[in-house]
């Protein structure tokens, strides 16, 4: 009898505990549902519609016509090419630069706290402000061309030449984003047990060997995080391209990116459904690349 009462009491307690757990989850479920799940579902709905915005919102089901238009739209392929080139150059460069800066600051140089602040300043500066400053630097008679001419190198029309316009944005973003990833690497470096390096020294390892065989393998999960965040951020390039080109993606579509193309589809061409289809294409690319990165970088844990 007492055993039955005990089982019933435990069962009632478990039910009460489960109810309390679900009640605590309600705020999170509401936030995620409102700001994540519902927008995704609405975007799926939009991607299958032709939306009329002027004179009242009207929806017309067109099936996968918006996605077929992606394949036929030359500007989509140009935007993908520009974005892929941007990602392929910026992500590896900023990752390597961040690691070099972190290792340098972790080596115990004099005034390293001031160097950290100095390196990190571009990260906390407004992206729009940085872009305007670099546009002034990139001017045909700006500081960069003056410097190139002074050292005897050729000068460029950084804002008007399609061959170098996107590279100007790359240089700016590598300089401004590498310090953010430097801080992540620096925190990870300071968490590596010093006894590993001491043991390696006893075995006769030099600094380069310790870096290759101890630091790099231990930082592999951190590198996966840095690269994944870098890929997601670079694929979403918008504001610098918009400001550089005045929203056109010029010169000659040289700075046209996928997100800028989505902006143009919505706010210039009023093609909500088509913009949603482009957004899903971008999301699919980012997810695929992130999964591939996880396959090569994310399998190990420290």
Automatic annotation (TrEMBL):
| Phylogenetic classification of the source organism | Bacteria, Bacillati, Cyanobacteriota, Cyanophyceae, Nostocales
List where in the cell it is found.
Answer: Cell membrane
> Transmembrane segments in this chain: where?
21-45, 86-105, 117-137, 171-188, 211-235, 242-266, 272-292
Q: Which InterPro entries match?
A: ABC_transporter_permease, MetI-like, MetI-like_sf
- Name it: Sugar ABC transporter permease
GO CC terms for this protein?
A: plasma membrane
Q: Which organism is it from?
A: Dendronalium phyllosphericum CENA369
* Membrane topology of the entry: Multi-pass membrane protein
Q: What is its main location?
A: membrane
Do you know which SUPFAM superfamilies this protein is assigned to? MetI-like
Q: Give the family, as the similarity comment puts it.
A: Belongs to the binding-protein-dependent transport system permease family.
Q: What PANTHER family has UniProt attached to this entry?
A: ABC TRANSPORTER PERMEASE PROTEIN, INNER MEMBRANE ABC TRANSPORTER PERMEASE PROTEIN YCJO
The answer to whether the entry has keyword Protein biosynthesis is no
| Domain named ABC transmembrane type-1: residues | 80-293
Query: Biological process (GO) annotations?
Result: transmembrane transport
Q: Which domain of life is it from?
A: Bacteria
Q: What are the protein's UniProt keywords?
A: Cell membrane, Membrane, Transmembrane, Transmembrane helix, Transport
